[in-house]
Design brief:
- This protein is of the alpha/beta class.
- The chain has three domains: 11-157, Beta-Lactamase, CATH 3.30.450; 170-339, Reverse transcriptase/Diguanylate cyclase domain (Alpha-Beta Plaits, 2-Layer Sandwich); 352-608, TIM Barrel (Alpha-Beta Barrel).
- The chain has an eight-stranded mixed beta barrel, surrounded by four helices. It has a six-stranded antiparallel beta sheet with strand order 1-4-5-6-2-3.
- It contains 25 helices and 22 strands.
- Helices cover 45% and strands 21% of the residues.
- Bound molecules: ligand C2E and magnesium ion (2 copies).
- One magnesium ion is lined by residues 508-509, 529, 572.
Length: 613
């Protein structure tokens, strides 16, 4: 018997080991201390036969490390007779030399400088089978010059432990490594010792989710669902095996739960390798499955992340994979998507913005700019549109497109909208007070649909007008087509009440939605703001490119109809004088756009009052 890593066979030294039980008996080393011969001798004999017959495998080893005596249990374990074992080097018998620490500890025990050594060894029996042994070396009482070596066969326990571990670490449905094992492997792969030894120092992950799996489960039952998962697992394993050809190892395939799987490439060579793997997985899953006599088609969405192992954490990698998988789904499923740091930064910014919106209102991080609304007939300033900006301490000045949507989603548009309304009205009143000689200008404020639904807009407006002293006809509210279309009940009542109060209602970005003018005319709406896309159709005139008559015909008809229905028309995004003159020609009432002015701070508006813009 010898250790798997070590081992001159003890049999070679048999001559030296001619230490038999009777030798031990008479050996001076083991002589009884007392003079009385008979009684202790009998006692000793009894101990010796107990030692010989004990079911625990044991050997007495002298200070030199040589077996002085061994019992039958040890002989059985090591595949030799006790006689054969005597005289052999104990450390070789049970493989105590193969690792330096154990060897050192063992020698310390032999020298009496350490109390005990316990270690586990895998030993090979001469008949070929191997076993797990727990080896204990402990000194005999002081007066006995040597140590007691005992060996316990713990193979059964180890096997049970291994089986339990396998059960704990594998998924019963697919037999794949489960989440626990996957994270264990991932964490190990991300430890410096692992990737510094491995060739590439990179790591890659395909995180996959089946599209439409829930439907299979719901319609055909869990049993079919489970079989499908097992079949998918088989195909994934095949893909991983193929990817592993010619490389140090194949990717680890794991089931992370539900219909989620992961393929971990512990020694990635770059995104190309991961892209190839993802592509092959996608194809493998696309092929139909024959399960319980049914032909099932599913597809997969895969998030692919590939990066340097250094500085990567398991959670960081998984979060990136999760986000990327979400993109793959959002982009239309049945595809793989590679992690994109820029897209992620955008997402993070969205999150960061969403979480700081409300406190930002309290901290006064918002301000308003005003863009002139100019009468097309005489070129004079009639009003201004209030446009909100966020002076973000981290991201700089943000335009509303970055945060209005978020504010609508989380409801912070209500307090923000109230602030905009109050600020704009106060400002409009201020201009009026500052320029009593000029006709007053109105202020047009954008209102999100949620403000109409989730707050008492009518009460807010009434209160703000009363507080600021602004006349209702100097306030206009801009709502989008989709916000007012089909509106009944509360929003319609609100619009009616505001209109009755004398407040103007404008339809913003008109033409981008349903464009049902006849319907709009039945609502308390007074102004149409023609979307910039119509005006853009005019842009080539004067540059040698013939104008697009279709656009002009459409816009002209629209303006005429609006007038007949009692609405006035404002054109957005007027950028050139050519556009302005054509709009004027076809009857547009008011213009807004860079031709006149960009959105500006309030003091710049003061300078424009009374002048031709
Ligand atoms: P909108 O109400 O259609 O506002 C006009 C947008 O067009 C403004 O963008 C303005 O800067 C831009 N614009 C003006 N003239 C021109 C031009 O000649 N050419 C081009 N290309 N663009 C021009 P801004 O300020 O980024 O606002 C975007 C949108 O955000 C607004 O579109 C409005 O829907 C929304 N918004 C702005 N302020 C508020 C607010 O206080 N509350 C709510 N609910 N929404 C707001
Ligand atoms: Mg607007
Ligand atoms: Mg608009």
């Amino acid at each position: 018997m010898s250790g798997t890593s070590e081992g001159p066979a003890p049999a070679a030294d048999l001559d030296r080991s001619a230490v038999t039980e009777s030798d031990i008996k008479t050996s001076p080393r083991t002589e009884p201390r007392t003079d009385s011969c008979t009684e202790p001798r009998t006692e000793q004999l009894t101990y010796r036969s107990a030692f010989a017959a004990a079911p625990i495998a044991m050997a007495v080893v002298d200070r030199e490390g040589v077996v002085v005596g061994a019992n039958s249990a040890l002989g059985d374990l090591l595949g030799a007779t006790p006689e054969e074992l005597g005289g052999s080097v104990a450390a070789d018998l049970v493989d105590l030399t193969s690792d330096a620490r154990t060897w050192h500890a063992y020698r310390e025990v032999l020298r009496g400088r350490q109390a005990k050594l316990r270690c586990t060894r895998r030993l090979k029996h001469p008949d070929g089978h191997s076993l797990w042994a727990q080896i204990t070396v402990a000194p005999l009482p002081d007066e006995e010059p040597g140590v007691l070596l005992s060996v316990a066969d713990i193979s059964a326990r180890r096997e049970l432990q291994a089986r339990l571990r396998h059960l704990q670490m594998h998924d019963p449905v697919t037999r794949l490594p489960n989440r626990t094992l996957f994270f264990e492997r991932l964490s190990t792969a991300l430890e410096a010792e692992s990737y510094e030894q491995s060739g590439t120092g990179r790591i890659g992950l395909c995180y996959l989710d089946l599209d439409g799996f829930q439907a299979v489960n719901d319609t055909l039952g869990h049993r079919v669902g489970d079989r499908l998962l097992a079949a998918v697992a088989e195909r994934l394993t095949r893909c991983a095996d193929e990817a592993g050809y010619g490389r140090a190892s194949a990717p680890l395939v794991a089931r992370l739960g539900g219909d989620e799987f992961a393929l971990l490439v512990e020694d990635s060579t770059g995104t190309e390798q991961l892209a190839d793997l993802a592509e092959s997985v996608l194809k493998a899953v696309q092929a139909p499955f024959d399960i319980s006599g049914q032909r099932l088609s599913v597809s997969a969405s895969i998030g692919v992340v590939e990066r340097q192992a250094e500085g990567t954490s398991a959670t960081g990698l998984m979060q990136a994979a999760d986000t990327t998988l979400y993109w793959a789904k959002a982009d239309g499923k049945d595809r793989w998507t590679l992690f994109d740091p820029e897209r992620n930064a955008h997402r993070m910014t969205r999150q960061a913005l969403a979480s700081t919106l409300r406190p930002a209102i309290e901290r006064g991080e918002f301000r308003l700019e005003y863009q002139p609304l100019v009468c097309m007939e005489d070129g004079r300033l009639r009003g201004v549109e209030a446009l909100v900006r966020w002076n973000h301490p981290q991201f700089g000045v943000l335009t509303p497109n970055r945060f209005i949507g978020l504010a609508e989603e989380d409801g912070s548009i209500v307090p923000l909208g109230r602030w905009v309304l109050a600020t704009a009205c106060r400002q409009a009143r201020q201009w009026q007070l500052d320029h009593p000689e000029e006709p007053p200008i109105f202020v047009s404020v954008n209102v999100a649909v949620r403000q109409v639904w989730d707050s008492d807009l009518v009460a807010d407006v009434a209160e703000i007008l009363a507080e600021t002293g602004l006349a209702p006809h100097l306030l206009q509210l801009e709502l989008t087509e989709s916000a007012v279309m089909g509106s009944a009940g509360r929003p319609l009542q609100a619009l009616q009440a505001l209109s009755d109060m004398g407040v103007g209602i404008a339809i913003d970005d008109f033409g981008t939605g349903y464009s049902n003018l006849a319907y709009l005319s039945r609502l308390p709406v007074s102004v149409l703001k023609l979307d910039g896309s119509f005006v853009r159709g005019f842009q080539y005139e004067g540059e040698g490119v013939p104008p697009n008559p279709a656009d002009e015909v459409v816009v002209e008809a629209m303006i005429q109809l609006a007038h007949r229905l009692g609405l006035t028309v404002t054109a957005e995004c007027v950028e050139t004088s050519a556009q302005a003159s054509r709009l004027r020609r076809i009857g547009c009432d008011t213009g807004q756009g860079w031709l006149y002015s960009r959105p500006v701070p309030p003091d710049r508006i003061s300078g424009l009052m009374g002048a031709r813009v």
